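Consortium newsletter contribution from the modelling node. Members have asked for a concrete example of what our holo predictions look like. Here is one, prepared for the zinc ion complex that several groups have been discussing at recent meetings.
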Amino acid sequence: MSVAEQTFIERLRGYVGREIESPRTAPWPVNEAMIQHWCDAVGDTNPVYTDPSFESVHDGIVAPPTMLQAWTMRRLGVKPEETGGQSLLFAELDDAGFTSVIATNCDQEYVRYLRPGDLVTVTASIAGVSNEKQTGLGAGHFVDTESVWRDQNGEIVGMMRFRMLKFRPASRAAATPVGVRAHPSMNDDTKFFWDGVAQGKLLIQRCSSCGSLRHPPRPMCGACRSLDWDTVTSSGRGEVYSFVVHHYPPIPGFETPYVVALIALEEGVRIVSNVIGVEPSGVAIGLPVQVSFQAVDDSLTVPLFRPTEAS
Ligand code: ZN
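And here is the predicted structure:
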């Protein structure tokens, strides 16, 4: 490490331990309405969170632990404090050319369930700054922050360690990766699927006990918990249920922009794939598609989808 780099990293490390911003108390106590909205949004139907008459070990409604951060979120449009440790640290990194940021890790720890009426306050500080690292996105520094939530009695109820990479974005030309499309990971649960694809068949798992179809492949039936299954061969026909157009970052083996879509097969299961043979602007929800087996290399064929002839 050069003297200049050493000096720079020491200045960055000077922020370790500093508060990101002033402690922030939740604008509202933990409450049933927010819990209900959260459960609706994420599709969590566990009655322990929403049904006051449900008899559980908690003896009353509790909040989903993963809501921890939601209680103290800044209101929409409210900017972080400019004099907070993270703003100052990020400004230094920006000045040095590390202008982009991406979240890379998040670990949360829950000490106790929150109940309606609890009022939480979060404090957060810079926990660490790494040396300069080379990453697939460019050179950068990992910044760790640590947040602690306390209740109205000052007792810790949960913690979070959050890691971000502040990086210098590589130029587009330099960032274009070479190489081929990565092969999917195959294991005992997914082997049948890829064996089928190699033979030009799109196989869907079917529970031998209750007949439910499921995809992606997994050992147990989500409907009846049976471990017995066989397969049916899909017609390969379906429609675009949802999709995104991937522009950036570039991925080896893919030419951007490309379409990543959730295809609703006519048998009733959905599969993630790419839509090909049409400009991304021509893809829409409901577009009828048909599977198309594309050889990537000598050892891999993938099931992609293209618009059906009629469409
Ligand atoms: Zn079943």
